[in-house]
Amino acid sequence: MKVDGILPFALTHVAARARELEGRGFDAGLAAEVSNDPFLPMLLAAEHTERLELMTSIAVAFARNPMTLAQTAHDLNAFSKGRFILGLGSQVRAHITRRFSMPWSHPAARMRELILAMRAIWDSWYLGKKLDFQGEFYTHTLMTPMFTPSETTYGAPRVTLAGVNPRMTEVAGEVADGFVAHGFTTERYLREVTLPAIERGLARSGRVRTSFELCCPVFIVTGDSEQAYTASRDMVRSQIAFYASTPAYRPVLELHGWGELQTELNDLTRRGAWGEMAGLVSDEILAAVAVLVPDPARLAERVLERCGGIVDRLAFTAAISDPDRLAEQVRRLRGA
After folding, report:
1. Phi and psi at residue 103, in whole multiples of 5°?
2. Where are the chain's structural domains?
């Protein structure tokens, strides 16, 4: 199992964190698109490491177009000598249309076409094929030598796709190199919904599961002391409440018979009652979504009980202040 760590949002801290992740045995450093651009940390991390893989988890695909994504991913992959993984996600309609002022329609079909368009662009650069991609959402038919990258040693970057619903998951299985499950998920949802959808997508593309990586961020509740454990539990409970309020994540709750919680939490967000939300997340829901580890020395054991045999690579943060203890848990996970 590969184990990935999180890079900080602040660019001034990225280099040190990337070196730290590499030194502690992590396989990749991840950069999310939240209040920052997800690609700039990748460049800094690549410059200050030698083996660490670098993945956006995620970059908002529909805020960009296939050509700009293909160019940025190529540059980062070439600069890092083949270590870059382009992790994409769709975001939700409101953010795409109101925050990014970009079109939104048929997200699964659009995402499938976007990735295929990127692959057509890369084929023109790396294989010399004529660029002639004409789809429903994207058209790319012009590529001249001046705009063709000269450094093609490392080939096309790998592409992972994040999602929750089965349709987007099937798209990942069909056209991507991996799928990133959301941290707001459960073992049951992974087994009963995610994995079957991936298999359907792989079947359409004529590929097998061993050619594909299932990645999963994991909420971990732990701490070096009772006080730290309590603080970690309260923070994760609040995170779960936030995600559970979003309609896109309702299917996870509905599988367990908790669908109405999404409605209740969403109502609280509309009223601005953010402080009341965590109180609606029961201990049962907390234990289903997060991995509870009162003893940090058992972190690897508890995570493997949840993810072993399902996930190919996982990402997590844990409130463990002792770097040697954390590094030991990472070694145990990677050796599993």
Report:
1. -70, 150
2. 2-223+297-334
Q: Are the C-beta atoms of 199 and 173 separated by less than 8 Å?
A: yes
In the structure, what pLDDT confidence band is assigned to residue 322 with cuts at 50, 70 and 90? confident
- The first and second tokens of residue 37, run together, are 């651009």
- Kindly tell me the number of DSSP H helices and DSSP E strands found in the chain: 14, 13
Residue that is written with structure tokens 């599988």 in the block: 255
Residue holding tokens 């993984």? 85
Q: Which fold has domain 2-223+297-334?
A: TIM Barrel (3.20.20)
Give Rg (Cα) of the chain. 20
Q: Crossing angle, helix 259-271 and helix 226-244, to 10 degrees?
A: 90
| Structural tokens at position 297 | 């020395």
Q: How many CB atoms are located within 10 Å of the residue 4 CB? A: 25
Give the phi and the psi of residue 70 in degrees, each rounded to 5: -60, -40
Total residue length of the chain:
336
| H or E element at residue 30 | strand 28-31
User: 198: number of CA atoms within 13 Å, CB side?
Assistant: 28
Among the listed residues 220, 218, 225, 184, the one whose alpha carbon sits nearest the alpha carbon of residue 299: 220
Query: Residue 132: phi, psi to the nearest 5?
Result: -150, 70
Question: If you ran DSSP here, which 8-state letter would residue 211 be given?
Answer: G
Task: Determine whether 309 is exposed, middle or buried from the number of CB atoms within 10 Å of its CB (0-12, 13-18, 19+).
Answer: exposed
**pTM of this prediction exceeds 0.85:** yes
Indicate the pLDDT class of residue 185, thresholds 50, 70 and 90: very high
Within 10 angstroms of residue 49's Cβ, the number of other Cβ atoms is 20
Using alpha carbons only, give the angle 71, 74, 78 rounded to the nearest 5 degrees.
145
Look at residue 113 and give its three-state secondary structure: helix
Residues 6 or more apart in contact with residue 205 via CB below 8 angstroms:
173, 174, 175
